[in-house]
Structures are given as structure tokens and as C-alpha cells.
Amino acid sequence: MTLAELQELEQRYAVGTYVRNPVQFVRGEGALLWDEDDDEYLDFLAGISVLNVGHCHPRVVAAAVEQLGRLTHVSNLYYTEPAMRLGKALADSSLGGKVFLCNSGAEANEAAIKLARRARPGGEVVVVHDAFHGRTYGALSATPQESKQAPFAPLVPGFVIAAKTPEAIASAVGERTAAVLIEPIQGESGVHVLSDELLLAAREACDRAGAALIFDEVQTGMGRTGTLWAYQQTPVVPDALTSAKALGGGLPIGALVTGSKLADALRAGDHGSTFAGGPVVCAAALVALEICSDPALLARVRKLGEWMRASLAELAGVSEVRGRGLLIAFDLAGGRSAPELAQRALLEQRLVVNATGPVTIRLEPPLIVTAAQVEEALARLTRLGL
To answer: How many structural domains comprise the chain?
Structure first.
């Protein structure tokens, strides 16, 4: 179907929750996309950090297709090998506890909130300004952004909002606190790296209060920052973490991973999901996790990220650059509009990026991106007048 035909169908049949750009993508490979006219685009968004292994990675595709032809679904009333193996792989790669599989990042954070309140019934959950944890009701209630919360009030009670300072975190945590839920790098609000001092204050406050420290690694995990999990570049180990986005290699999956302290907090019947941990997506996720765990790949991510940030900082039209690894954002100087620049990049330079605010552009290329592709992306941004 043509783009015009799709737009007509959207107008008539789709609930209007998305503002789509006027491009229909029909094919992808690695860090490249092609539209209906077979024009090639350089993808520096990766489905919002979903395609860390790139589009249609042959190993991920092969694993999913093979499993799809053998067994697609039986529910969690029975065992399947891919789900059990994935749980082990996730625990072994991180906190060493136990794993709850689900279908998305918001679901993983919902499970984390329930985990914390099961461990401390009725307890409060401390979150910080500018956080984003999802759009389902519990996750939305943990997302202190007025524009997202206000239309859907009243929200789930029991969330405490703290400023992004060590002192504010320490003050917010007390005997009623069940957990501190925090992103080590805030992706949706513009790639803001939270300081080691703040994370240490959260860890110390949780230890004093007997509360859980939970890291939302939905966007920062799976190698995006140059280590498999972002917490591995900090002096802090959380009690649990959440993952999604890139975990499935392009297929929908999420996970809550616990350390030993919280491994048995949830009991039979406390939580569940019909499609969670299905064999097809778990087969794909096992391969994606293996690829993203490769030390050589992670070293490249750190090196390319440093180069990209240094190169962006040299552009006259850029006022600030933030990030770690290949999770990068830059602010535009001179009052330029980031949404307008993102659309111009797409339509004029065939470069896929996105705006996370009025002046902020976010870059999240696949981790398998080449140095030549990074150089080309920088050249295309320069041609936009940066």
C-alpha cells in the first residue's frame, strides 16, 4: 500500500495517540532502513533503542523463525525451554536473583512496584523529577511529568517525588519507603546522566530504611551505554532492575530481574501475564542478549560514543551534549526547534533521529553501527546547519 493509503486508513480507523512522520518504512538491515520508494535511510534511533543488534539481525531472525515453526505459545501454566534459559541468562548477567518475564518496559516496572510493595506492604515508592517509567497506571504514577499525568488523574497513590540531588533522595526515604525507583540515565527526558553521588545516596538511604533500590534499565540496558547494564559503570548495585526494549532483538519482551534479597518476595498468584515469556520471543532474546554481551562490541560502543559526543560538541549549532555510550542527546543553540530539525533530518537527509523536547535531539543508533555510518550521520547533521 502507498503512504497516502496508509494515512487514509489511519485517519479512519486508528486511535489518534501518535503523531507519525510522513514516511512508510518497508525494509531494514543493520543500521539502514528503506521506504516504499526504496530510498535508503540511516537509522540513529533504532526503534527508540529497541534494535541494539540492528534491523533483522540474521541470528535473531533465524532463532525466532526456527522456534516459530516448532512451538509458538502454551502459556505459563507449562514449561518451555527458551523462557527458563532466558531467566538464567538474565540473572547470571546481572544481579544473580530471579526473573519475571513480561511484554514491555511499562509491564516490567509494574512488576517492580508490586515486588517492592509485596516486600513492604503499603510502602511508598520514591521517584525523581523528570523520570519516565511508562504509561500504564502504576508506571504513569511513577512518572512525575504533568503533561502525561494530568489527563488521567486520579493516579495510583503512594508515590513520593524527590528532586535530583543526593540530599533530596536521602530526605525522601524513610520507614514508610518500599523502594526508590530510578533511571541511572533518564532517556525520555533528554538523556540526563544521574550522578554517582545521587545513586550512592539512594543506595545508602535504602539500606538504612530497609527499602529496595530498583533501577529502570529499560532504555539503558542491553549494552546501550557501553556495558551490558548501566549500573555496571556506577559504584552502586541495585536490588532489582527492569529491562525491555532491546531485550527481544526487535520483538516485544520485558523483564524484572532481582537480586538475592528480593528473589522470593513475589509468591504464586501474585502476578502474571498471558503472553509473557513466550518461546518465540525468548528464543530471539537469548540471541540478542548474547550479542549485546560481547566485550568487543561493548568496547566499540564506548569508543564510538566518545567520538560522537566530542564531534557533536564541536558543532556551532549545538549548545550541550550529554550521554554515555551510544545513548546521546544534544541541545540546539539559538532557540532552534528540535522537532522541526528531527523532521528535516528525516525528510531532507534521510537520517532517523528524534526530539525529546523543544531543543533536544536524541541519538540511539544500533550498537552494530559502523564508524563510517557514524561519520555519515555527523555529516548529515552538519548539512542541516548545525
So the answer is: 2
Summarize pLDDT for 125-144 with one digit per residue, the tens.
999 999 999 999 999 999 99
Reported as type and span, the H/E element at residue 33 is strand 32-35
Mean pLDDT of 164-188: 98
Give the Cα separation of 27 and 40 in Å (integer): 10
State the amino acid at position 143 in one-letter form. Answer: T
Q: Which of 159, 123, 158, 167 is nearest to 143 (CA)?
A: 159
Residues 78 and 204 in one domain: yes
What does the alpha-carbon distance between residue 12 and residue 41 come to, in Å, rounded to a whole number?
A: 29
Number of other residues whose CB lies within 10 A of the CB of residue 28:
19
Per-residue pLDDT of 36-64, as tens digits, reads 999 999 999 999 999 999 999 999 999 99
**What is the tens place of the pLDDT at every residue in 183-202?**
999 999 999 999 999 999 99
CATH number at residue 42: 3.90.1150.10
Q: Are residues 84 and 162 in the same domain?
A: yes
Question: In this structure, are 123 and 164 located in the same domain?
Answer: yes
Residue 62 lies in a domain: no
Task: Show which of 265, 292, 319 is a domain's final residue.
Answer: 292
Q: Do 146 and 250 share a domain, yes or no?
A: yes
On whether both 307 and 284 belong to a single domain, the answer is no
275: containing domain: 71-292
pLDDT band for position 84 (cuts 50, 70, 90)? very high
Computed over every residue of the chain, the mean pLDDT equals 98
Peptide bond into 154 cis (omega under 30): yes
User: Which strands, in side-by-side order, build the sheet including 360-363?
Assistant: 318-324, 327-332, 360-363, 354-355
